[in-house]
Amino acid sequence: MQEGNLKAEQTLPRLAVDELDARRCERVQLRLHVGDLERDVVHAGAALGHELADGRVWPERPEELDAALADEQGGRLDPLLLDRVAVLQLSAEEPLVDADRLVEVRDCDPEVVDSAGSHGAMLDNRSVRAMVLDEPGRPLRTAELPEPNLGPGQVRVRVDACGVCRTDLHVVDGELPDPKLPLVPGHQAVGTVLEGEAEPGARVGVPWLGWTCGECRYCRSGRENLCDFARFTGYQVDGGYAEQIVADGRFCLSVPEGYPDEQAAPLLCAGLIGFRSLRFTGDAERLGLYGFGASAHIICQVARWQGRRVFAFTRPGDEEGQEFARSLGAEWAGSGQPPEKLDAAIIFAPAGELVPAALAAVAKGGVVVCAGIHMSDIPSFPYELLWGERVLRSVANLTRADGEEFLALAPRVPVRTEVEVFPLEQANEALQRLRVGKIRGAAVLRLG
Ligand SMILES: [Zn+2]
Ligand SMILES: [Zn+2]
Q1: Span from the CA of 279 to the centroid of ligand 1 (angstroms)
Q2: What's the whole-model pTM score?
Q3: Which among 208, 136, 206 is positioned nearest to 169, based on CA atoms?
Q4: Which of 6, 119, 232, 369 could be cross-linked to 40 through a Cys-Cys bond (beta carbons 3.0 to 4.6 Å apart)?
């Protein structure tokens, strides 16, 4: 995640107020959490008289606002004060509570909120199995969580399979800042709609991009992947390492027919992000793929289908990986310098030293695309490596259009995903095998 997003998040409460003014929307729903506690609050758009989760109106008098402000600033934050804090957050010029307490803000339909009552209420005490990250650097914990609450515009999905992505590893290992905690990771969930804003029984995929504002300069220019306020599945909202997930219906993707759940799951990020990266290589004929994991094994097939020549780079001595790459159509697989110059390279491995190596491998005018969300520092390199109109760029997240385009293309290739399947409870083992480069193709958790 980019730093810009964090800064933007700090100003989210102001945004909410500004949005009320600009859009004349009547209410904004806020979800705050402090520790394990969560509260939903409805902002009714006036300096006084905000509606709290239990339906009371607060503050009725200006003195009540001042008193609560003093409590908050004095550090006497009681869980019962959460509703008030939410209102303060909206009323203040500057954010009053840490940004990580604010987990969600969105417009809401008054009707829906009213009929749903308090979103904090648990439904029938039903619980779902999940794997939970309490703190980065610690293994995931097996947990029974209350069935997630369904908010306005959301769908409840029974998760049938969820891919394990390198990004999950970065979140679990603490390489990405400020995840929601506790967190259910996973952003390649394939499942069945149970209720909400989609046809019950529909088969959907829940990808990394969980929500965008639709209003910022990126959203308005077809670049929602860069949205200042984007929220990501399995990072800032709970993901698919669970029997159920709730997701914004507008961001779910339909899963192509003909793919069993486990085979479809890696298409949702490894495939999608890889495809976005591939597009940025233009019509490059000789394509290098650095790190032959979940993404590369899919993109190798797409690139071959498009008529490109593929050169696969693995860890030195990884003969099994090299053989795997050749079996999927790579004409060369190895480490070090390729036998001839490349026209483009995509770096999937999170190793900064591959950047100068890839620049050295591409011909003049060549493109090097960094596809991962995290990478170790890039060592300095002579300008000569970039000279000759070589281009170095990153790829961030996905747009819904990417998702639709790629999921329509995959069955035409047809892309065949190779997966190692683990039961949900073995998510830690799957992550560990990914960490040490032992997964052939993609790791997928099976539920049910
Ligand atoms: Zn936006
Ligand atoms: Zn991913």
Answers
A1: 22
A2: 0.74
A3: 136
A4: 119
